[in-house]
Amino acid sequence: MTDSRPVRITDLRRKKQAGEKITMLTAYDTPTARLLDGAGLDVLLVGDSVGMVMLGHDSTLPVTLDAMVHHTAAVGRGAVRALVVADMPFLSYQVTAAEAIRNAGRLLQEGGAAAVKLEGGRPVADVVKRLVDIGIPVMGHLGLRPQSVHQLGGYMRRGTETREAEAIIEDAAVLEAAGVFAVVLESIPAALARTITGQLRMPTIGIGAGPDCDGQVLVSADMLGLADRVPPFVRRYADLQGTIAAAARAFADDVRSGRFPEAAGRAALKRPAATRNAS
Ligand code: KIV
After folding, report:
1. How far apart (Å, rounded) are the C-alpha atoms in residues 33 and 54?
2. What angle do CA 147, 165, 84 make, to 5 degrees?
């Protein structure tokens, strides 16, 4: 049975110590957040993947801070128990530490997030430390860093060569020292994720990083069957594209054939007495 207390960042460390897996899915709107929260997910990530998954962009780069605040607030209105973590979008934390603090502050103050996530290792360690020092919890993100897609040359797996694998291990240690409470490991070999997970006290949350991370995250649209193309590591738990398309076709058929809406007299007869009296 799921504990009904709100999840705190300290609970994630406790879960790692107890060997309990951490569950995280992305959410971008209130009804989805309500459903995922009710299903007992530990963490709802308002990912900047919203740009690709929901807004039709071909990368996360066009996502603005205003958009992230807007979606984070929507998720916050649906989440009762889950920890809400908001992605800091491209250029909202790389320019100066002062800007990063103000921008992260907006995600907490206006968006209602409990923590922020940002991509990168050593180059962002000072910013992470400043945020953590003033009380803003930070989740790291290493491996495939979608905001660096142009520099990386695409959305390929990372850390398959020794030099890059060692750099990711070093980045993870630096992030832990800077104070992050958890780190996402995206699209790296399972053996590398296992090594990092074993070396850190903070939890690792994997996506395409094998089974040995302390938790797992997926983009909800991918696992719900709402996306056209998904990475090979995704497991589809539902076919919402099929369900929505069938419902839309059934509605259109009913309207065209006159089966919907029902004639006023017949609809009123079918409604319960209490509803009839109220209207
Ligand atoms: O933006 C996002 O959805 C993410 C996940 C892929 C971890 O960062």
Report:
1. 14
2. 45
pLDDT bucket at 277, cuts 50 / 70 / 90 = very low
Same-domain status, 83 and 185: yes
Nearest-angstrom CA–CA distance, 131 and 205:
21
Of 87, 107, 118, 149, the residue with max ligand 1 atoms within 8 A of its CB, to mutate for a pocket test, comes to 87
The three-class DSSP label of residue 196 is: helix
Best residue among 25, 36, 48 to mutate for probing ligand 1, ranked by most atoms within 8 Å of CB? 48
For 251-267, what is each residue's pLDDT tens digit? 999 999 999 999 876 66
Which residue puts its alpha carbon closest to atom 6 of ligand 1? 219
Q: Which ligand 1 atom lies nearest to the CA of residue 205?
A: 7
Residue 46 covered by a domain: yes
pLDDT in tens, 79-92: 999 999 999 999 99
* Residue 178 token pair: 């800077």
What element of type H or E holds 142? Answer: strand 138-143
Helices (H), 134-239: 149-152, 162-178, 190-199, 220-223
Alpha-carbon distance of 24 to 45, in angstroms, equals 7
CATH number at residue 42: 3.20.20.60
Q: What is the pLDDT of residues 130-184, one digit of tens each?
A: 999 999 999 999 999 999 999 999 999 999 999 999 999 999 999 999 999 999 9
Helical packing angle, 125-133 and 97-109, nearest 10°: 50
- Compute φ and ψ for 104, nearest 5 degrees: -65, -40
Are residues 263 and 217 both part of a single domain?
no
